[in-house]
Amino acid sequence: MAHRILSFDGGGIRGLLTVILLERLEREVPGWIDRADLLAGTSTGALIALGLARGMSPTEVRGLYERHGREIFHDTWLDNIQDLGRLAGAGYDNVRLKRVLKARFGDLRLKDLRRRVLIPAFDLDNEAANPARRAWAAKFFHNIPGSDSDGDRLVRDIALYTTAAPTYFPSADGYIDGGVVANNPSLAALAQTQDDRADGPVPPLRQVRMLSLGTGRPLMRIEGRRLDWGLGQWAKPLLGILTEGGMGVVDYQCRQFLGRRYHRLSPAFAPDDLIPMDAVNRMDDLVRIAGSIDLAPTLAWLRTVWMKR
Fold this sequence. Notes:
This protein has 11 helices and 7 strands. By secondary structure, the chain is of the alpha/beta class. Strands 1, 2, 3, 4, 5, 6 and 7 form a 7-stranded mixed sheet that branches. Helix 1 packs antiparallel against helix 3, helix 1 runs parallel beside helix 10 and helix 5 runs antiparallel to helix 6. The longest helix is centred in the C-terminal third of the chain and has 28 residues.
């Protein structure tokens, strides 16, 4: 029997593009999302995964972005002065985000969700009693029954942890955005299916099918054949290099493991069009871009691979 994974990248407000793609795919292949056995999501992708796992439709998840995007990424000139333009503080507080998450998920726990989820975050200090074991580390929250399950954790807390993007939002309970280690959580989700600590059988890789969705891919580049740069020059582009490069590696690995049972939908933006994760003023552009993407290859894959028993 097929084991299906639906994976969502991080990307802030660009998650709006992802949910519109979901809307369009659902109109053409009704019910395909309901066949997912595991929903994985990082940062904004986690909001999508958790919303779908709660039973929300893509249109309802889209409403979260359109109604609350500007509220979550709200900033003032006074805050910018106090933070020295993010040099001495996060760009946004998380008070409004907390309010939105509490209103949407209340006291729901991961184990109460209708579907299995995997949500990456990064623990800055595990506070282990043994100094030899005290360190930072990636953390993958999930609700899969077994000895390693995080089913008792509050959904709203996990959503806050995985969206705590450095320089954008403050850390939350010692966690920051899962995007620092797995902005594309596809490979983490694939690995999770092979964990023998989970209750129930481990699906063979030949039974796994995965659709991985991005939030739009900027065509970034650095010109020059020899760059004699130091920390000051590399600091700004390095995060983008690590994030985008890391997602490409995950795409390669999943494709090697799964072959044609894996499909990636990550449309590229126009050359030199960089849409930051907090660009709420570009939401209309994201709607337009999402509506113009050719979904024929993805629809063909859904019908011939994903929907196949």
